[in-house]
């Protein structure tokens, strides 16, 4: 009925040994419950949008109120103005901001704006980076397509693919060469400032500076795709952590409090090009709908609780340290890249700093780990490329239970006959 049984390909278990994925019916706090009533500790966090856990009371209240008072008006509302102001208070670089329904739309429009502003058509993106599912960024795209082995560009016209220059992440030299060759045609360099889509991969020192310097030299804009990173590691953008400032920023996932949303914004003179003020068209029947926006407002309020991000980091550190100690004990090669409350588990001996490194990690070991953890009531992302996200309701007991499940799984993996 539904192609592959899923409404988004990353939900399939194709990359972790196949078979039907688990079906879930209910979430509460740190837990998801499957159709048989079994409880799982959830680190998938819906691939990134969830940070307060499932059915957080403040979000339930906001969504219930929106349901009672109308979920869609097709008119401006005071909620969206307040939300835009709160976003700008958190991210001052969002001098002006527009809401969309998804991260895909946000990045897509930011790129369209960059093209309009510069009058150029090419973009640089980084190998393995995922920026949504519009044509331009499905050229050498990341986790979803790469995991499933679907040709990146099936259905994407060759003419579109010719406008995309792909460079390895964390490779300033390759970037400089690409800019030397295509700089005069370049509208934007699009980048996740901290990669969240082939694992968590932080930028190496000077990599982001190189992006900004080269973009400035050739007259291209820098677009930060912060659909995963914003509000994940701190309240706001990661730009202050990294000491950089993008021209345009795309948001999504977390900011909707679990309802569909996206947003893009940045320098006022660029945003002035957006219709109806300017000639760059972007629209959406559902964009800025009261339900998503009121959930987003409640979410931003809750995220300002003192110590929230330190708490996420402490739990993620305990998990990462525990997993590394256990993998060491059982002789299983494991690299953990962690930033704040998010980390990735790559089964390899080599550090992961590019997509090629992530690709080289052992998918069969990850599949065995995923399945072992699932059997023991821990839900991980069904792909070796995706990150674990710690959520506010994860307790120390959940961390301990997760590490006990990992120990049993590693023991089982170490005892399994070596694959040829
Ligand atoms: C998820 C994601 C997107 C796409 O967002 P959707 O809401 O799924 O369309 C874009 N960029 C990044 C970095 C993402 O992780």
Explain this structure.
- The chain folds into 2 domains: 3-56 and 306-415, Aspartate Aminotransferase, domain 1 (Alpha-Beta Complex); 57-302, Aspartate Aminotransferase, domain 2 (3-Layer(aba) Sandwich), CATH 3.40.640.10.
- The strands form 3 sheets. It has a 7-stranded mixed β-sheet with strand order 4-10-9-8-7-5-6, sandwiched between helices.
- The two termini are 37 Å apart.
- The radius of gyration is 21 Å and the shape is globular.
- The protein has helices spanning 57-69, 78-90, 103-118, 143-148, 158-161, 172-182, 207-218, 239-242, 268-271, 290-303, 308-329, 355-360, 363-375, 396-415, and strands at residues 24-28, 31-34, 39-42, 96-100, 122-126, 164-167, 186-191, 221-225, 248-252, 262-266, 335-339, 342-346, 378-379, 388-389.
- The relative contact order is 0.17.
- The chain has 420 residues and is α/β, with parallel strands linked by helices.
- Bound molecules: pyridoxal-5'-phosphate.
- Keywords: Aminotransferase, Cytoplasm, Isomerase, Porphyrin biosynthesis, Pyridoxal phosphate, Transferase.
- GO terms for molecular function: glutamate-1-semialdehyde 2,1-aminomutase activity; pyridoxal phosphate binding; transaminase activity.
- InterPro entries: 4pyrrol_synth_GluAld_NH2Trfase, Aminotrans_3, Aminotrans_3_PPA_site, PyrdxlP-dep_Trfase, PyrdxlP-dep_Trfase_major, PyrdxlP-dep_Trfase_small.
- It is an enzyme of class 5 (isomerase).
């Amino acid at each position: 009925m539904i192609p592959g049984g899923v409404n988004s390909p990353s939900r399939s278990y194709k990359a972790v040994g196949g078979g039907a994925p688990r079906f879930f019916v209910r979430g509460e706090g740190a837990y998801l419950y499957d159709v048989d009533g079994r409880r799982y500790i959830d680190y998938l966090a819906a691939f990134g949008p969830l940070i307060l856990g499932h059915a957080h009371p403040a979000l339930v209240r906001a969504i219930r109120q929106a349901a009672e008072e109308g979920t869609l008006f097709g008119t401006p509302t005071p909620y969206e103005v307040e939300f835009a102001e709160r976003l700008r208070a958190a991210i001052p670089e969002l001098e002006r901001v527009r809401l969309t329904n998804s991260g895909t739309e946000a990045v897509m429009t930011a790129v369209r704006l960059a093209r309009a502003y510069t009058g150029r058509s090419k973009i640089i993106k980084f190998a393995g980076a995922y920026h949504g599912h519009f044509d331009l960024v499905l050229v050498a795209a990341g986790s979803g397509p790469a995991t499933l082995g679907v040709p990146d560009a099936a259905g994407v016209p060759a003419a579109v693919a010719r406008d995309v220059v792909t460079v390895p992440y964390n490779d300033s030299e390759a970037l400089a060469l690409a800019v030397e060759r295509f700089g005069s045609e370049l509208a934007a360099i699009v980048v996740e400032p901290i990669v969240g889509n082939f694992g968590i991969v932080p930028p190496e020192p000077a990599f982001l500076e190189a992006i900004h310097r080269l973009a400035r030299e050739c007259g291209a804009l820098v677009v930060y795709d912060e659909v995963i990173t914003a509000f994940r590691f701190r309240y706001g953008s990661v730009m202050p952590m990294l000491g950089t400032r993008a021209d345009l920023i795309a948001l999504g996932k977390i900011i909707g409090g679990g309802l569909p949303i996206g947003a893009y914004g940045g320098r006022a003179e660029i945003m002035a090009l957006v219709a109806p003020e300017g000639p760059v068209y972007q629209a959406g029947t559902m964009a800025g709908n009261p339900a998503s926006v009121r959930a987003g407002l409640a979410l931003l309020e809750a995220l300002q609780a003192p110590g929230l991000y330190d708490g996420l980091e402490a739990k993620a550190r305990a998990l990462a340290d525990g997993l590394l100690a256990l993998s060491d004990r059982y002789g299983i090669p494991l690299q953990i890249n962690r930033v704040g409350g998010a980390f990735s588990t790559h089964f390899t001996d080599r550090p992961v700093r590019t997509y090629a490194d992530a690709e080289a990690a052992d998918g069969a070991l990850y599949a065995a780990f995923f399945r072992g953890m699932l059997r023991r009531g821990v839900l991980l992302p069904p792909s070796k490329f995706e990150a674990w996200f710690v959520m506010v309701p994860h307790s120390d007991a959940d961390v301990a239970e997760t590490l006990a499940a990992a120990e049993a799984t590693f023991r089982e993996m170490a005892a399994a006959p070596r694959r040829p």
